[in-house]
Structure formats: C-alpha cells, structure tokens
Design a protein that fits this description.
Elements lengths: L4 E4 L13 E5 L9 E2 L5 H10 L8 E5 L1 H6 L12 E5 L8 H11 L4 E4 L6 H6 L5 E2 L18 E7 L7 H13 L4 E4 L4 H10 E6 L8 H8 L4 E4 L17 E4 L2 H12 L2 H6 L10 H9 L10
Parallel strand pairs: 1-2, 1-4, 2-3, 4-5, 5-6, 6-7, 8-9, 8-10, 10-11, 11-12
Length: 304
C-alpha cells in the first residue's frame, strides 16, 4: 500500500471528505478529531507533527487553500517536502487580485501540479502564467450529502447562502426577488452543508447564484439533494468541462425576469417538475483523482 495521502486545509476535520488512506491535517483541526492539528503552520511544522505519529513526508501532499489564505496564511517551505505536492485552489474570487496572489505564490513555492477546484473557466488564464500543470476535475475530492427529495416538496424557489458585505450581486438579486413578490420565494442561511441539503430536498426548486464564475459547492449540494436548480449566470462557468452540458435539472437565467419566468413556468407544471431526473454529483476516490493529475508526469509514478 502506498503512503497515505495528506490533505492540508484550513477548516476543522471534515467527515464528508473522509476517504480510506486520506489524512486530514491543518492548523484548525480539533485535537480530539481523527485529523492532525498542526501547531506550527509550515512544512517544517507539518513534518514534525507527522514524525510524532510515525509518518514521513513521502506521501502526496494536497494543500487545499484559496487566495485569501494564500495572502494571510501561506504554507511555506514546500521544497522541504520530499513527496509529490499538489496545490488545490478554490474560491478564486476571494481577496484582492486573487489570480495575482496565486501567481506570486506559485513563483515562491515548489509544487508539482495545481488543481483548480471550482473555477474550470479559469484554466486557460492560470495556465498562461505558470509552467506547472494545471487541472480541474470538479468536484475533485469533495463529497456532498445525498438526500432523497421529498415526495411533496414546498412549491417555491429556495435560495440558501450568504448575502453579506462580500456578496453584493447576490444580495441585490435576493432583495429584489423578495420585494417584487412575483414568485413564491424564500431565502435562508445555514451553518452546514447537511443543513442546507435537507432544505434543498424539501424545496421544489433551488436558486444558485455563483460569484465570479465559480462552479460552487451549492451546484453539487443541490444535485445531492435530488432537486432541480436555476443558475443565475451562463454555462461558461463549466469552462472545458462538458459532463454537465445536458443535465435536465439545470436551468439558466441571466436576468431577474428570467428567474421569475422559469420559476413560474416550472411551478405551474408540478408533474413535470417532480419528474425531472437529478443525478448525484460524480465522486472521485483520492487514488483515481491523483492518477488523473499525475498520470502524465514523472513524479513518483510508483505512488500513483
């Protein structure tokens, strides 16, 4: 068996991300969780923590971050890690000049490959400023709750998500939908993916408002909850990914009027709406994902 895969991230231990032979580590992991809390946020600190439990730095290191964390908490000293190193970058709308932040970090630290988790539309742009191989296989190593849709869902359009200071476009659309009162519409916020998924499964239809061309968590959470969704945007967020092109459960709107029109049309045809087939999101094992990323690179081939 190859050495375990190591997922370094900036949240507490995530049960949904758990896979066989995948270890989660990071500065915010709870000490009583199955993951490894890293006190000294650096590759040196990571290696020290691993040595304390009998592991070394020969495994594939998957560093999951985003431009905000890259600017505030960069993981440094990657040249001291002896196994393959993958930078998994999400939320490429976070922070000031996020692509510049990513570009500068890649010039400072040594990675063998980059995985863009939620922005396949930016693949070409990111490949233009780095010689490191850049990939995107959404939803990559993420997993989402799977919940069967309610037999008699609430006949409304539901939006779940933040509309705070950093989400101006989303807040404006939500506020306008509420004020216009042209459709049955509800907006709520939740504290977990599972809580959101339960609400999705009880709704007839979900509104998804991606920011800056993100193929976001909500896109996959709604699929896992067996519910059709209206996406405020256009299919360019797929980038070169073609596997979602012809899904019958996804509807596109570029204006508030289109959101209202699609909603009223679908809610008025309850039998059709409830008959729409919603396939759950694809899931990659960590082994298969690493093979897709490293298969064309001469980087520890015996491990992948």
């Amino acid at each position: 068996m190859p050495p375990p895969y190591l997922l370094y991230h900036y949240a507490d231990y995530q049960p949904l991300w758990a896979q066989e032979n995948l270890i989660q580590a990071g500065p915010f992991i709870s000490t009583n969780s199955p993951g490894i809390k890293i006190v000294n946020h650096s590759v040196r600190g990571l290696k020290t923590s691993l040595e304390e439990i009998g592991l070394n730095d020969k495994s594939i290191l998957i560093h999951y971050t985003d431009p905000f964390f890259l600017s505030k908490f960069p993981l440094e000293g990657l040249n001291k890690w002896h196994g393959p190193k993958l930078l998994a970058c999400g939320d490429l709308h976070h922070g000031n000049q996020p692509l510049n932040t990513l570009d500068n970090y890649l010039k400072e630290e040594a990675y063998d490959a980059v995985l863009i988790t939620f922005n396949p539309s930016l693949l070409g742009k990111i490949r233009s400023f780095t010689n490191i191989p850049v990939h995107s296989y959404p939803p990559s190593f993420f997993r989402y709750p799977k919940i069967k849709k309610e037999k008699s869902p609430i006949m409304h359009l539901l939006h779940v998500g933040s509309i705070g200071a950093y989400h101006d476009e989303r807040r404006q659309l939500i506020t306008s939908l509420i004020k216009r009162e042209n459709i049955p519409f509800s907006h709520v916020t939740t504290s977990s993916s599972l809580e959101a998924s339960v609400l999705y499964s009880k709704a007839a239809l979900v509104l998804n408002i991606p920011l800056n061309n993100d193929l976001n968590h909500r896109f996959f959470e709604v699929m896992g909850a067996d519910t059709p969704q209206i996406i405020f945007g256009d299919p360019s967020i797929y980038g070169p990914i073609r596997s979602y092109d012809h899904r019958p459960d996804i509807f596109w709107a570029s204006s508030i009027e289109q959101v209202e029109s699609i909603t009223n049309e679908l809610l008025s045809n309850k039998s059709y709406l409830n008959s729409i087939q919603v396939e759950p999101p694809e899931e990659y094992s960590i082994e298969s994902l690493m093979k897709k990323i490293f298969r064309s690179q001469v980087v520890y081939p015996d491990m992948v």
